[in-house]
Amino acid sequence: MINRVLIRIKVVQMLYSYLLSRSEFKIIPAPDTTATRDRKYAYKLYLDLLLLILQMSGYEISGANPLRGVALDKHLNRNLLAKSLNSLDELRAIILEGRKDLKAFSAVLPDLYESIKHLPAYRSHIRKKKVELKDDVELWISILSSLLAKDERFITAARTDVDFTIRGFESGIEMAVDTLRGYNDNRQLFIQARNSLTNSLDKAHELYFQLLALIVEITKAEAQRLDEGRNKFLPTDADLHPNTKLADNRLAKVLEASPRMEEYIKDGRTYWTDEPIFIMSLLNKIRSSEIYEQYMDSYRDDIEEDCEFWRNIFRNIILPGDDLAEMLESKSVYWNDDLHVIGTFVLKTIRRLAHTDGGEPTDSDFLPQFKDDEDRNFGPELFITAIDNFDDYKELINRFVNTRQWDTDRLAFMDIVIMVTALAEILNYPAIPVPVSLNEYIEIANHYSTPRSGQFINGILYSVLHYLKEQGKLLKEIEK
Q1: Nearest 5 degrees, angle CA 381-CA 383-CA 387?
Q2: pLDDT tens per residue across span 75-111
Q3: Could you tell me the pTM of the whole model?
Q4: Distance (Å, rounded) from C-alpha 1 to C-alpha 367?
Q5: Taking a C-beta distance cutoff of 8 angstroms, is the pair 167, 38 a contact?
Q6: In 3D, which of 180, 186, 165 has the Cα closest to residue 42?
Q7: What is the DSSP letter of 361?
């Protein structure tokens, strides 16, 4: 029942929330013009150190790379910490503006690079079976505090700056270390986000049954309304002999008798029994509609008509109305976004139940939570893949955003999340055609981001995919 359309939406939503809330490396703001000489030099060295981490991790900082020709260590090259730093717009701007060429350290950098391999922290680091971001953070903190802060070659190179001060040098090292320490490895936050994704998919399946249970509760409310009319002090002839067609609706009786619905209805798991005012409000709207009038006046008397009545009520009154949306918002944070998709599954189920001929429905008449195990695993796996490759995919996106003369700072973050998720799917799920993935994420962008997002995302993704195709990194056909 929960198809990949809804799963993709959930993954984008959870990824967006997770990435916004997780701790990031934050660049310390530049000091103002009234700052002391110590403070000004500390900030210059601070930026130099962050850029040196990138350079020693295999990233190009300037045209004259002192490590060019040096065999790059596999444990340092493009490490997770450097990838995260490289994704910071502030550092990228410094590099692109050419403000820093790090010439002062060029002569000593190759020797310092080799010295890293003799640090106890490095030897401990390379023995880890699986290196996580926090491990890279710990290694680079040790490199800064145990090597660069104490190495006479590095200190001598730093002294060539006319603004150098001892206090500024020490403060610059401390600032860089504090920036790295300020990063939370987000493991607990990731677990929470991953659990929230699973929970939101479970809640979507629950909404499916809650909406079907709504049919039962509204029908019961109609029967109660008629019974109260019969028992009035001075009942009219219409009160004593009411039209009971809705109260006797076969679809409601079939649903109530179904073992699949029993836990939601008979065991009190449906929310609607505690919302009599809401149920009566919906019933009154139904009774004042032309759909209700035509149904009650019809001479037909079969379950097909009863099901068609509820299909029309859902399509025209319940699903489009604000009352249900407001009620669902108070019950679950997930449900308003799910309502449109789950509503279509409810309509499909009602159509299936029209063929039960009033008998007890089988399990096949209700939609399962997932079509198969592949669909069940699709959401969690896509979520993890998008996180693991976020920096790399964002770097690809930035390459083509820049060539199109867009300011990356002005991009909606939701657009970035959507594009990263789309690339995670296209590059890691060979059985899903590229056009299918593109169309789905463009639709998500049109609905959840800015009015121009769909067209913009389409253009950027096509540019990225054609580039990957040329590089031999994409084996799928881009268009069919």
Answers
A1: 115
A2: 999 898 888 888 777 777 776 665 556 888 999 999 9
A3: 0.67
A4: 5
A5: yes
A6: 165
A7: P
